[in-house]
Structure formats: C-alpha cells, structure tokens
What we know:
Blueprint: E1 17-26, H1 30-40, E2 46-57, H2 59-74, E3 78-83, H3 85-93
Parallel strand pairs: 1-2, 2-3
Helix pairs in contact: 1-2
Amino acid sequence: MSTVVNPHEEPARAQPVQTFVAAGELLDTTAIDDIADRVRGTPAAAITVDLSAVTYLSMEAAARLVVLARLCAEEGRSLRVVPSGQARRKLVTMGLDAALPLAP
C-alpha cells in the first residue's frame, strides 16, 4: 500500500478544519476540556467550536474557551467559536469576545 502526499501540504495538518460541537447546558468545564483534549490529537490546521445549540454557558466553561484559544495559538491552529445567542451574551458580558474569535 502506498500513500500519495502533496509536497505543498504539511502531512501533520492534512485535515483543513475540524469542528467540535457542544450543546445544552455547559455547567462546568467538562465539555470544553474534552474538546481541548481532542484538539491536541487532531491533525487539523483550523478548529471550529460550535456552541450554537448551547442553552447555558457557565463562567467556568467560558473561561476554558480562552485556555482553548491559547492552546490553538501555541499549536499554530486557527480557532473560530460559533456561539448561540445565550453563549454570545455571556461571552460579551464577561469581555471574552475580545479574546475569542466569535463567528457572526
């Protein structure tokens, strides 16, 4: 079996975008920590965290998104967060919209 590799593409970043989804009430850091663990193992160059179905975002979970953003930056990955209306309000209220790349 042989593998063809594009010489202009980094093999470690073969998958361009990986999307991780969280939904419902994020009452603690568990869901975001789980996403961070999975981000560490993905070959993707860009990460999307889809929070569009989140009905409640705790302060702890919101703060962990900033940690995730730092992890992505350290690993050379781009990050985009797609928040629900509820999640966006919490992130803006906490001033985290300045630290997180929120999708419109």
